[in-house]
## 1
Amino acid sequence: MTLVTAVAGILLLPACDSPEPPSVVTAGEMAGTWCSGQKDRLLVSDSGEFEVNDLSRDYFSVLRDDDGEYTKEFVLKRDFGAQVPTTGHGRWTFKETSTSPRLYLEFKALGSFLEPIPSELIIRRDEHGALGLYGYEGDPDVGYLVRFVRCS
């Protein structure tokens, strides 16, 4: 046996203390109050309803997912009276996808705007098993724009 073969064999052995893989995310884990670093508060109820309070400009940009053009001038003036809304509510659903589970939010109202606005947050567990809800504007490879964690 060569030294290279022996080292390769050792590297392929499973670690004795390797952590167990994170558990599967379920819809039942979504209910509760979630907070973002920008102070958004997302209240998700068991009944399938949700409410957002203290909506930040960052999360508003995620909701509109159009590279910032929406939050500028025309549409913001037309649909929201030139004010970024601070509240919204609607219904939520949980779905597994081929990549990560999603929390889909169907806004019934966003500020004074009363037409449905669909949105999604990607659900991930960190290395400690804690859940996070991530909102992206555009390409997720660029990084998240807003992250919700359980409020303490």
Note: The chain has one domain: 26-150.
## 2
Amino acid sequence: MKNLIYLLCLVYLSLISFNSFAARIDNTVILGIQNGTSGDFIITLPPNSDPKCTNGGVYFYVAAGQNGLNSDGVKVLLSLALVAYSSGVKVHVVYDNSTQACFVSSINVLK
């Protein structure tokens, strides 16, 4: 019984720490979009958006197989990023800042 309680505690702790690297930037604008070589892309946010990210906190990467995205998810995020960029509206960006690539998991376009 004691081992079962320890196991449940271990599972619980691993689940609550699963998204411990999720970060969010609110009310920002997309300054640029750069295509990658295999369907991935990079969005450029204002300087120092997150100093942990590449090039002084400017580049945020979107790629299949990273941060829970598949290839369809990358296409959806590209569409959202293009709409936000072309219309100049603000966005919320959720990403993983545990690496310098800061892989994005979602983009919320604001009105």
Note: The beta strands are 22-28, 32-35, 41-44, 59-62, 91-96, 103-109.
